[in-house]
Design a protein that fits this description.
Alpha-Beta Plaits; 15 helices; seven-stranded mixed sheet; FAD/NAD(P)-binding domain; binds flavin-adenine dinucleotide; alpha+beta
Length: 501
């Protein structure tokens, strides 16, 4: 088992290293392989632009499957966190399950890539502890391997610089007192305590709530930065903010120690160990319908047409994308209007700085940027979760989102504003760090919809279910956690209506 690299043809581009799900390839000018880790999956062959990789023992029809047919109890379109959670829950319950993924690796917007030993998320990276995602991992027996920040947050405040409230309880109160005075800090904290205790959330927005208590721009700036870090925009309905706070109190966040891909592969492993299959490089072209029921899928599996029969179909590719695949004419126009109302994609942007020195002096927690043009939260991911080799550092930063749902983000402007913020926060950063910005929007956005919106897991087709972050979620669950919650709902409905054979 293993691969051979024809050194003369290798151009050291690193694509094979990025693509390899098993960390078996390391590129330093040329690709080097550790065949003890290779599984003959052959993904690297699909990525190599110079065809310099071959399998030691060639498999017949390695990269192109012949046309074929297969039958499963459940077929899931997309291996995002919603698809894999549904697949693992159902496979463990005895359903013969297939997950189909068009990409060479699993996990969609919750996965990761490795480049020169540094882990880069493909989308989401901050993972909520103690919520639906952790529950799914516990139920299916997969390892939930998170590294969490070990200290209280710090704050960088425009015009003041670094604020360190120290360790211990009442850290937010101490921070507020440092930027205003004790009386004001007590007033704001008292209002919060009363709201959370009574669960009587104020009308209006967060900015209106804080402006009614203070005219200190640093105090309101702290709440804007925390809101933007949690939701994207820096102002949201106050009920959403306090609802999130009460729902997630004490839960905490973490980073996947082996990157998102490591977590997502644990779910894929559960599916395979339970008798299911995960087909990568397999694009679903169409859902086959008969008498208003889904009967299977048309799939292009590594270039060859496949027909997959299924008793139940689950879509993790987004509600609007699913409607397009089904064809609008197959659905009640009322359902299409409902989806249009509930789905307001939000651009997702992350800035990564890879540096040869720690920009935050190795601080192992999160830092809020208050009063910055674009950035609202950042943390050294290599310090928290070991995401870089010795001598390298990766700092992950989230910019605040544009306030209007559905408005396309101007990537160049975001990058310029983030760089200008960095000039203020880390003068001289350009000598030590390279900036990488990822931006997902449109059909493959940061979040399929805004907090409080989203569609039901049920669709007008009785045996077709929807999962992912475009589905309704409980207060406090967003992004990957919301996608996992949708999987719990869909799996429960499927178990109730289509019992395992
Ligand atoms: C920059 C950014 C930062 C984010 N930060 C966070 C964060 O810190 N915390 C958090 O919880 N969330 C975060 N999110 C959101 C989070 O990434 C998503 O909510 C979550 O990953 C969505 O998962 P999903 O199940 O909806 O599916 P997706 O990840 O969208 O997966 C769908 C899968 O379907 C596949 N697919 C599509 N069409 C087909 C087809 N026809 N055939 C086969 N396969 C197909 C795709 O390739 C993909 O793998 C962030 C997102 C972005 C972009």
């Amino acid at each position: 088992m293993g691969i051979i690299i024809e050194e003369a043809k290798c151009i050291g581009c690193g694509l094979c290293e990025i693509a390899c799900p098993y960390d078996a390839i390391d590129v330093h000018m040329k690709a080097n392989v550790d065949n003890s880790k290779c599984t003959d999956c052959s993904i690297c062959l699909d990525y190599c632009p110079t065809d310099c990789i071959s399998l030691e023992e060639p498999l017949a029809a390695r990269s192109a499957f012949p046309p074929g047919e297969a039958a499963f109890d459940v077929a899931i379109i997309g291996s995002g966190v919603g698809g894999l959670c549904t697949g693992a829950l159902l496979a463990r319950q005895g359903y013969k399950t297939l997950v189909l993924e068009r990409n060479p690796t699993v996990g969609g917007r919750y996965s990761s890539l490795k480049h020169k030993g540094v882990t880069f998320p493909t989308g989401g990276s901050l993972i909520t502890k103690g919520g639906p995602l952790e529950e799914v991992f516990a139920e299916v027996g997969a390892e939930f391997d998170l590294a969490t920040p070990t200290v209280n947050p710090r704050y960088w405040i425009r015009g003041r610089g670094w604020i360190d409230p120290g360790e211990g309880s009442s850290q937010l109160r101490r921070t507020l007192a440092l930027v205003s005075n004790q009386e004001e800090a007590d007033r704001v904290m008292g209002s919060m305590r009363e709201i959370l205790g009574s669960r009587n959330f104020p009308d209006g927005t967060m900015v209106q709530w804080i402006d009614s208590l203070t005219d200190n721009p640093d105090v309101s700036g702290i709440f804007k930065a925390i809101t933007a870090a949690a939701f994207g925009p820096e102002d949201v309905p106050a009920g959403d903010f306090f609802g999130l706070l009460s729902a997630t109190a004490g839960r905490g966040m973490g980073l996947a120690r082996r990157g998102g891909l490591g977590l997502m592969r644990s779910l894929a492993k559960v599916i395979v160990e339970s008798g299911g299959e995960v087909w990568k490089l397999s694009t679903v072209k169409n859902v086959l319908l008969e008498d208003g029921q889904a009967v299977g899928l048309e799939v292009e599996r590594r270039g060859a047409p496949w027909k997959v029969q299924a008793n139940v179909v689950v879509s993790d590719i987004g509600p609007k994308q699913t409607i397009r695949m089904l064809g609008e004419e197959t659905l009640d126009p009322k359902y299409i209007s409902y989806v249009d109302e509930q789905i307001r994609p939000m651009g997702g942007i992350t800035v990564h700085l890879v540096s040869d020195k720690s920009l935050v002096d190795g601080f192992p927690g999160v830092i809020y940027a208050v009063g910055a043009r674009r950035l609202c939260i950042f943390f050294e991911a290599s310090r928290i979760a070991d995401w870089a080799p010795p001598g390298k550092y990766i700092t992950e930063m989230y910019p605040k989102a544009d306030p209007d749902p559905g408005v396309a983000a101007d990537l160049e402007l975001h990058a310029e504003e983030a760089a200008a913020d960095l000039d203020d926060i880390f003068p001289g950063w350009r000598e030590h760090a390279e900036m990488n910005v990822i931006c997902l929007q449109g059909d493959y956005p940061g979040n399929q919809t805004w907090t409080g919106m989203g569609v039901s897991a049920e669709t007008p087709i009785a045996n077709l279910f929807m999962v992912g972050d475009g589905c309704q979620s409980s207060l406090g669950n967003a992004g990957g956690t919301a996608a996992a919650e949708s999987a719990q709902r869909a799996a429960a409905l499927i178990r109730e209506r289509f019992p395992a054979p």
